[in-house]
Amino acid sequence: MVVLETSKGRIVLETDPDNAPITTENFKSYVRDGFYDGLIFHRVISNFMIQTGGFGPDMEPHRPGAPIQNEADNGLSNKRGTIAMARTMNPHTASSQFFINVNDNGFLDHTAKTQDGWGYCVFGQVVEGMDVVDSIREVPTTARAGHRDVPVDEILIHEARLVDGEGES
What we know:
The protein is mostly beta strands.
């Protein structure tokens, strides 16, 4: 499990290494390296998702590692409360950015191993803190540094850390 201590409160994520082993290990390696500490939720769309993993305060970009293989063909669906990898139009470009679905977004699911059908890989879910996610989804947004849907007031990840499920590590 991963705990995100944010400026809006705590979000606890449970990853799914059985169905998304590459994605889970990639995500956990970023957490272990402290990559997410100090980053912001840079994209918030209230009826869709909240996204983080790419920018620090003032939309300062953070350079991720190499992209990973898309595992969206794992049978998991982009339902409310699930976490999934963000990517570009190329299906195999996910690296550090991820999002939390705030609605059921089945249109993001894998349908075929084609450019348009790959979908977005679900690799876990929120197990605590959906109230925090819902408070983030409601913040006012603006355009900043060439990006839309950026929260007017920055929402910071103070710390992301791995926990063992029984207690904090």
